[in-house]
Amino acid sequence: MTLHPRNHWVVPEETARVARASFPKGNVYMTMYDELGTLYTCVKVRKKQS
Length: 50
What we know:
Distance between the termini: 28 Å
Oligomer: single chain
Strand content: under 5%
Number of domains: 1
């Protein structure tokens, strides 16, 4: 079995619902994801940038 890199990452709806219920005002990580979206799409890119 081969794992292929994904072009995008999606937060499951249930996870988003629970996070928003737990942090109604949000937090820095939720805000960052909402504003910027996915920061890295591939492990190879992440390794090259570090």
